[in-house]
Amino acid sequence: IKRFPPPRFQSLCRDLNSTVLVFVKGLFLYICFSYCVYFLLLRTVGGSNTVYEWSLSINHSEEEEPAKYPYQHIRQAEDVQQQIIRETFHLVSKRDDNVCNFLEGGSLIGGSDYKLIYRHYATLYFVFCVDSSESELGILDLIQVFVETLDKCFENVCELDLIFHMDKVHFILQEVVMGGMVLETNMNEIVGQVELQNRMEKSEGGFSAAPARAVSAVKNINLPEMPRNINIGDINIKVPSLSPF
Amino acid sequence: MALKIVKGSIDRMFDKNLQDLVRGIRNHKEDEAKYISTCIDEIKQELKQDNIAVKSNAVCKLTYLQMLGYDVSWAAFNIVEVMSSSKFTYKRIGYLAASQCFHESTDVIMLTTNQIRKDLSSPNQYDTGVALTGLSCFVTPDLARDLANDIMTLMSHTKPYIRKKAVLIMYKVFLKYPESLRPAFPRMKEKLEDPDPGVQSAAVNVICELARRNPKNYLSLAPLFFKLMTSSTNNWVLIKIIKLFGALTPLEPRLGKKLIEPLTNLIHSTSAMSLLYECVNTVIAVLISLSSGMPNHSASIQLCVQKLRILIEDSDQNLKYLGLLAMSKILKTHPKSVQSHKDLILQCLDDKDESIRLRALDLLYGMVSKKNLMEIVKKLMLHVDKAEGTTYRDELLTKIIDICSQSNYQYITNFEWYISILVELTRLEGTRHGHLIASQMLDVAIRVKAIRAFAVAQMATLLDNAHLLTGNTQHSGICEVLYAAAWICGEFSEHLEDPMATLEAMLRPKVATLPGHIQAVYVQNAAKLFSTVLCGQEGAPADSKVAQETSQLLIDRLPVFVQSDNLEVQERASCILQLVKYIQKLQQKDVEVAEEVTALFAGELNPVAPKAQKKVPVPEGLDLDAWINEPPSGSESEDEGRKTKGKAVFAREESRHTKPRYTEVDEKELAMRREVRKAEQANNPFYIKASPSSQKVYQEAVGVEHIPVVQIDLSVPLKVPGMPMSDQYVKLEEERREKNKADRKKKDKKKRREKGRQRRGDSGPESEEDITPAHMVDIVTEEMPENALPSDDDDKDPNDPHKALNIDLDKPLADSEKKLPVRTHRPDEVLKSPIEDAEGLEVTSEPKKKSGKEKDKERKKGKEKKKKKHKQEEGEDLMEAGSEEPVQSKVTNDVAAQPPASTPEASDLDFWLSNAPVPSDPQEAAAVTDAPPASTPDAASGVAAVVPDSEPEETKSSKHKKKKQKKEKDKKKKHHHHHHSDGAREESVQNGTVEDEEPLPPMSNYAMLAENSYIKMVCDIQGNLHDGSQVVVSVIFENKCDSFIKSMEFNVMDSLNSKLQRPEGAGPHDSLTVPFHLPPGISSEARFIFSVQSIVMPQKLKGTLTFIVKTEDSSTHEKLDFKLHFTCTSYLITTPCYSDAYAKLLESGDLKGSSLKLEGINQPFHHLLARICFHHHFSVVERIDSCASMYSRSIQGHHVCLLVKTADQTVSIDAKCDEPGLLRNVLDEIKLTFSQC
């Protein structure tokens, strides 16, 4: 089996004028409606001797140096993932604002049953990859719900919030989409659950977490002045929204 | 201690957290890789610390790095550690990391089972939620099997938050572990009516997803979904349901009729565009499913088309796109209604959005007619010239070809025009579709005899200008065209004007740069041309000089090809070269050779349909594997073949001898197949690659419009390369049509004058039929073998995970299925999860179930009373009738759950559907409802007659109807009870045991492997479902002493036949390290994979386990020998089999039989069956009384069928299998099993 070269590390965030690509099952949000299919794909690409791989990681936790591992034993999921993100970004970023928000799927994302559905907010693209069982317009609305949820949870979300808090973004997304299936479409419900979980995290942290929080607050002072808005109101796509979600 | 914590946390605040990492990466744009590798080193240090907070921080950073494309699988074990933290904060980070990095081949996943189970039963709902979310991303078949029960329990959790997640994740579980679908389905169905909208939406989501893949199994849910559709206000749910109906209607046209009205109402009433769009879509699906002869539905079509037009005209590109998409669906069945919007669609071709243009192209495909084909293609050709980006241009190209060639070139009236279009298309630079154009050229040239002369002339021009095509782009696909050109020129060389020139063109040295397969065709066809030249010349013997020159030309030029690195080219060239040399010799002696050379290529080639070869049915009595002759004497037949050739000196090459028996082909079927194929092509995945247009647009084409068209010499095709000629044909065609029309008018007038009153139906001047083809073309249809089988099942993807979910859900659950299989062999695990235990008891334990049944009976009785009351009360209250519904449906469920019931759901559905047209006459209505019960004979097997329980929608229509139905029901109920109390069991049971039978003794598949005072090993051997050559051995190691056991190493002496799979690079005698340590009293399981070659014989492998026993002060090295016994049974895999498939299998006759008799067996029959099922991996296909058929399959695909019969303590087993050795051994093992108990 021909192996890929070792992973080349590229972050789209920085290469492309601080444009963050939020790609379900990709860079930020690595989950999608076609998740299982996607992983089948990864498995066929990266399939290797499982027992050996496993013993590698066990050995590793004991002593050995990672540098000794030849690259061919590293699974290739990340490569495929990066390729998908790169290609998707190329596709999406080239599109004008006045063209439609659907892209038909290519072989990389699983074939013609899949579509890329995206929305463009200022410098951010939110791309969902869905199969034909989802309603296109419904997904556009779902993206809107997701972005508005982010906005509420981060209190005026900006792209830097997403860059620096990818874990939180994930936690929020997990309340919207779970294992590639739409879980909840009611924004208030989502926000409520996220807040309850955050509260729980805070109460667990208690005294011992306080110093770390303080330090990180100090560190954050040094952050460059960030634009505090990604213009959610200024939506380029006119979609008559689904009434009660 | 407290101080330590504070100190730890102060240390920690200077650790890098995620934000620092991100910031660092952003600040090190130049040397990012270096920065990240130092970060990874830091992370490794952090992971080594004991502090869980530090670890989780490290894991959090790793998650980010994974996102950037770094491999972090080495940290999988640490992720598991963080997952198992007791604090929610860390647990959440751990599960997030796991959901990002784990996949099926991550081995530590095996270690997570118990942790996940613990989290699932955690009192904190967010622990459970986080575990469910994580699991949904990395669930494996093993996890699905082990946790299915726990998740099913969560589906009835008190918190809706957990419920909805549990419901949703069940889909993933079904995919990985299809056996869980049937047992879990009733509960899933309940969730459709959950009070919480989120849970309901999740359940709808899951069932829609399931139904999309296997719609027919979910038809029986249609009434329920119909109710939801008319009651729900959640648009998301509505959309899902409407989409689901779209998938169901093709299977059940009656459903469609029922749907039309509410859907049209929704279309009129909704304000949400997404809902409107989905409604339109489903209405279209309904209309497609209904036969076209429904006049009253034209209104619905009009409504749809009209709404879609509004969408397409909208300024929002999204709506425009979707409108076109939906339009293309209507097009398939109602092309007329779409064709009226041709203007709109052509307009869309000019849209700046590529996706929209592509969709419009799709539509055009269905809109062409004889009349407008040329016009449309002309428009498309303009777009081809304008198009930027090769992808779109290629798309246009394929569309043009698709449009023209559809339905066997139905719309092409002038093939000269089509050939010129094809020739023009060859000028596209950088297209990938050269082969497509080539195959079109070949197809047209072969099948349209009348066009051959023209085609040959064109192809000769192409060959002459080959340098234009190959040009600078060597590997562009367009040179494929030359393949077709060379072949056509060679094969139909009699039409060539100047074969000599063409021959010369084909032998130019530059040809050697073409791809090998094209060169091969060149060489071969050069030979054909050569024969033509000879023929032409030898007519006039004076010109023998020319013929000799030709031979010399070949002899001069062919050596280039003889040196080719392509084997095919080399072989052909050297063969032909020798031939020509021989001919030259003959020529020098003035021998007439032309005739014999021509005989080389005599005969005509007929087109053969794709897959024709595959469709030839094997004639009866022909065994393809048998020797035709005795192997050594093969040469004789060849000789005979040569004799029959008679006078020809050169035997014809057999490979070219495709001249087949001319057969009558079923035109219709052919057309249909073609249609289907075209439709598939039309739906091809178009990958939009908006890459910059690096290719220049063809330059000469720019000026095309301004070149004055030469009007004079139209019949002679222009031979100037780079000049599009098709336009002229368009003009020509128009003129011709005008003329024809005029002619016909004259004729018509004449006719009218002659036959005064006779009317002509199709006298409309624009009608299709008026357009006659330019020249009568004889389109040869593709040949198919006689009685070809019209099976086109080779498109299905065998790897589709949804295939396994094609499970009949209406079949009542058998006892054995009511609970998900729990792995009984792990006593420690069962103890660990009391909840699961309780659940298990509730569902399956025998006494409780009986009481449940009694309850059922009571409930039924209660209902009967109620009904009697009803009967007395003449004034029946409709409200009350409605309120009774839930009770009734409950009963249905219960009845359904009992094995003897036939499929009540199906009859429900029929009933529900048959009510669709509401009969106005009450009498009639009564007749309708009476009909189904009457058809089921009450007496014969009354149990099977189950009342159609679902309440009809139109209760209002008649009270009489209702009452009659009630009576029927009462009757039925009595029958039902009667039979139950009888315990009559003559009906056949589909799946395993009949109820009321004694419970089985507990069984375990784990056999003792070896044991000493320190450790005990038990093992289970299973075939690997996915790999026919692998067997998985699960060994449970149990620490029996009170010391710590570590460094266990497992080794087996490989035999020739079976080998332990060791990691790459390990030697054949190296031992495998068991990946865990065993504290005192703990047992744990490890799996080893063996590869096996032959599965016919049982085997024994010797092995050793070495380990270190560590006590507080010393450690000793110990060893335990064991013998692994691979029985033939362990190569069998439990595979369900339906009785019809089973019968077919037995009928097929390639199974060999064997039988076995067991005496003195005094256990109940169902125990016997269960034992065979359990120990020998069989499944029961059908059981009737004391006779059962069973089935299993080996990992290498052998079928094993058993027929088990019992009569007073004697059990006879008749078995059949395609591998007699395997069967014998399996039977021996079965015998052994029963001798032991």
UniProtKB/TrEMBL annotation, chain A:
Q: What is its main location?
A: membrane
- GO terms under biological process: Golgi to vacuole transport; intracellular protein transport
Indicate where this protein resides in the cell: Cytoplasmic vesicle membrane; Golgi apparatus
What does the entry list under GO cellular component? AP-3 adaptor complex; cytoplasmic vesicle membrane; Golgi apparatus
Record-linked Pfam families? Clat_adaptor_s
Transmembrane region positions? 20-41
What membrane topology was assigned to this protein in its record? Peripheral membrane protein
Q: Which domain of life is it from?
A: Eukaryota
| InterPro entries for this protein | AP_complex_ssu, AP_mu_sigma_su, APS3, Clathrin_sm-chain_CS, Longin-like_dom_sf
* Keyword Iron appears in the UniProt entry: no
Q: Which UniProt keywords apply?
A: Cytoplasmic vesicle, Golgi apparatus, Membrane, Protein transport, Transmembrane, Transmembrane helix, Transport
Q: Which residues form the AP complex mu/sigma subunit domain?
A: 76-200
The keyword Electron transport appears for this protein = no
Provide the family line.
Answer: Belongs to the adaptor complexes small subunit family.
* Role played: Part of the AP-3 complex, an adaptor-related complex which is not clathrin-associated. The complex is associated with the Golgi region as well as more peripheral structures. It facilitates the budding of vesicles from the Golgi membrane and may be directly involved in trafficking to lysosomes. In concert with the BLOC-1 complex, AP-3 is required to target cargos into vesicles assembled at cell bodies for delivery into neurites and nerve terminals.
Q: PANTHER family annotated for this entry?
A: ADAPTOR COMPLEXES SMALL SUBUNIT FAMILY
What protein name applies here?
Answer: Adaptor related protein complex 3 subunit sigma 2
Organism source for this protein?
Oncorhynchus kisutch (Coho salmon)
TrEMBL record, chain B:
> Which residues does the annotated region (Disordered) include?
624-658, 730-1003
Report keywords, A-Z: Acetylation, Coiled coil, Cytoplasm, Golgi apparatus, Membrane, Phosphoprotein, Protein transport, Repeat, Transport
A Pfam family cross-referenced in the UniProt record is Mu_AP3
Which residue stretches does the UniProt record annotate as biased composition, category Acidic residues? 780-797, 874-883
- Would I find Protein transport among this entry's keywords? yes
* Annotated GO biological process: anterograde synaptic vesicle transport; Golgi to vacuole transport; neurotransmitter receptor transport, postsynaptic endosome to lysosome; protein targeting to vacuole; synaptic vesicle budding from endosome; synaptic vesicle membrane organization
Residue ranges annotated as compositionally biased, kind Basic and acidic residues, are 730-741, 798-835, 845-861
Tell me the compartments it is located in: Cytoplasm; Golgi apparatus membrane
What this protein is called in its record is: AP-3 complex subunit delta-1
Say which species the protein is native to.
Oncorhynchus kisutch
Tell me the lineage of the source organism: Eukaryota, Metazoa, Chordata, Craniata, Vertebrata
